[in-house]
## 1
Amino acid sequence: MLLENKVVVVTGGSRGIGRAIALASAREGADVAINYWRDNDNAYGKASAVESIVGEIEALGRRAIAVEGNVAERDTGIELIARTVEAFGRVDVLSSNAGICPFHAFLDMPPSVYETTVAVNLNGAFYVTQAAANQMKAQGTGGAIVATSSISALVGGGMQTHYTPTKAGVHSLMQSCAIALGPYGIRCNSVMPGTIATDLNADDLSDEDKRAYMEKRIPLGRLGAPDDVAQCVVFLASDRARYVTGASLLVDGGLFVNLQ
Ligand code: RM4
């Protein structure tokens, strides 16, 4: 068990990649605190997913709590960590995963779309990382922070001019936090998912031509699944990666390197 008796915090943990990270962590022996944002959790016209993820983790014999809040607000991260410590006594791992990607053209993008995306994806990652790192430092036993950046930190998207800079920022945040937090034994790394089939891009990939184009560009021949990313997050969070910090791991089926 790679995360035996560890306490793992996952932001955006009710759906998609975050849900997979929460489940994978529980399967590896962790207790899990899940952050979810009510507006986003219900944004896809489906019933809230948070009750089911808590039940699935408890069915694995691990403990779970769910804490609602928008990570864009600094107090959300502070409360999330406080509620986690109240429930489980400590924080060992943060998966800073929460993110949105409302695809939109650049020239007519309203400020609200840009500002909300930056606030959730980048400001949110900063605030939650800061809250978790302060708790880890106070505990005095190190810790691991894994942020969900993206292939989009490295390449662009015509409908993602608001989004890709936030993913580049998350990648850079982990690099700088690796330096700032290394003295406390806190490792900071990022995963860079490629095109993973989740709610985040369900609308975008409902276009069959777009989906076929993406699948054709991926050397492994398929879109990623959330657990493909979760397994890499578990690795970076575990002691197997004890000497890895400031790194980033592409989880993209070869998409990034595939020019021709
Ligand atoms: C990722 C990448 C994928 C897109 C998601 C929403 O960073 O750009 O292609 O589907 O974001």
Note: The mean pLDDT is 96.
## 2
Amino acid sequence: MESSAPDALAYDRSHLWHPYASPLNPPPVFLAERAHDTQIVLADGTELTDAVSSWWCVAHGHNHPHITKAIQRQSEALSHVMFGGFTHRPAIELARRIAQLTPEGLDSIFFADSGSISVEVATKMAVQYQYALGYPNRNRLLALRGGYHGDTAGAMALSDPDGMHKLFAGLIPRHFFADAPTQCPLRSEWNESAFDSIRTTLEAHRDEIAAVICEPVFQAANAMWFYHPNYLRRMRELCDEHGILLIFDEIAAGFYRTGPLWAHARSGISPDIICIGKALTGGHLTLAATATSHRIAKTISNGFPGAFMHGPTYMANPLACAAGIASLDLFAGSDYTASVRRIEQQLQTGLAPLRSLPNVTAVRVLGAVGIVEVASPPRAEDVRSVILDHGIWLRPFGNFIYTMPPLVTPPETIGKIIAAIADAAALPPGPPVPADGFHE
Ligand code: PMP
């Protein structure tokens, strides 16, 4: 028999670990029972608007019938089969669709279970590629400060070294880091000197670097920062000059989040490897993909050991692939660029006045991303009570109170989200918090 809501929450509190939370003294959580459109329905019937797309993946709204039906249909035929020795139509069809969307011939697709794993796979592809070409010492990556690529060891190692993963410094592989692209904001005149740090670091260590990795244009979970696409053009030139691969992590920014299908489209150049995830299944099942070119795939195959050395148990799970196909149907079926432009305009107009609040240091909007940066964060419980009064679910982190709503959020709901953010940003600063803050 199902336990009562208080009993279920009490069990959760004493037995379950939640993300970025103390297992012994966890912050409060809501008991979610159902969800639809932009709404999460709690055990007591309260509805909260999901203003962060459940960590940026619920692009089409929760429990979209086209996606849930596709999962149901697939579950009646084939829920899982090992991908070693078998293939199946959902994987083949989804790979075909992804290949049509990814840039310039990146049509060799590896399915991964999560965004972090797709970054690990991209890293291993780059190192194995250089190894096959006869550069075994090219086994480190160059990443950007202010970046975030996931929580597994390999992905943490590529995220900002001064962020919350700092305590794992002894565990993780050592990579090279260039300065964060803070000196070349998006929508400002290009500042060539902003590229000096990465150029100098790459040139000093070119014999040890297999690839450069970044979140193109939008540094999300660490810095909440938008930077100039010329930075990516320069990266492309530099990598080509030295035979180093370029990896774009579009896990957060892809699928129209910043306006175009891919955030890097603003630069007009393409990476050698791209990681996609989150909105790939519209937030219905966990799935990510790493796509590269046939040239790179061929080089990896020709070198020792003649195979790519990665193969997780749930690789290309058929249910997740069916959800992915249905999600891509929805992206193809309506004009997401237009709906994101509408959200962008509304966020721009609605959040701009917050610049005059005493604790607000910056307001940044791009696509369906609205960020209010504060000098010092208000108390979490105060933010929680203010946003709940509006029926809005947000999850601020560090100095950022932000929204990344489902891309289908209607104007009146965006209006409510703006009102909730405005009230949260007007709260007085709370007591000082540890400098590392939280990551999403
Ligand atoms: N890369 C980026 C840019 C991300 O934002 C995230 C997650 N926030 C990840 C990788 C990791 O994805 P996942 O949580 O699915 O492992």
Note: The CA atoms of residues 347 and 370 lie 6 Å apart.
